[in-house]
Structure formats: structure tokens, C-alpha cells
Specification:
Elements (H helix, E strand, L loop, with lengths): L1 E3 L2 E3 L8 H4 L6 E8 L6 E7 L5 E6 L4 H12 L6 E3 L9 H8 L2 E2 L11 H13 L14 E3 L1
Helix pairs in contact: 2-3
Amino acid sequence: MTKRGKIPISNELATRPVEAKECSRLGDFEADSIWEKNQKNALLTLVDRKSRYLLYCKLDKLDCNQVEEALKVLLHGQPFYSVTPDHDREFRRHGNVTKALGVEFYFPSAHQPWQRGTNENTNGLLREYFPKGYDFSNVSGEFASCC
């Protein structure tokens, strides 16, 4: 396990299974967050690479504790094999999610968001509805999913 900054990197993106690379199965997710201007509230987004199915939840605070719990809740009951997040600090407890659920995390190269293109595109579409500066207090706090 290597560290980039303060985030332990368990698996490099290059070692991600072929099925995930080729988008040939359900359950390979890309993860990221969208936050308010003041970073008080945020949305955690997980997008399935094959189906483009979106799982999301509102976080009262963008921190690793809430992200860890949200990942566990969002992935529960879903087919899952891998999660590819970015290098943001809120994902530093991914090892706890791996222990709890058995899902592996694969990290792309730093500062290369195009390596998680499915999620970057989805978050761009969400930004049409939630532009920068949007007050997420108006978004339901329930864990939810949509497509």
C-alpha cells in the first residue's frame, strides 16, 4: 500500500480488473463528491461504469467519516466489485469499506480526472441542476438512488 499525500492507495488503476476497464459488468463504480461553495454540505456520487446508474447521498459535512458510512449504505444491496474514487481526503478511509464489504478500491493517477470519465461526466450533468454556490440544504438528506 502506497501513500499519495495522506491517502493510502491500496490499488493502482492499472491493476483494476479487465471487466471494470471494459465496462462489461455491473458493479464497477466511480466515486466523487460535489460540494457547496462553503463546503458545509456535499453530495457523494457513485456511478456504475456499465449502466451509468447513479447512487448518491447528501452529506452534512464533507469528511472521511461520513463518506465511509455513506459508501457502506449506498453499496449495500448493490452488485459491486470495485470503486474508483479520486484522491480527495474524504476517501482516505476506503480500507474500512473494503474490510466491511469486500469491495476493492482502485486509484487513478493524481490530477487526471479523465481516468474516471463516467463520474466526471455525471457530476458535470448534476452541476447543471446544482450550480456552484447551490445550497444543498434544499436537497433531501435521505440516502437515495436514481438513474
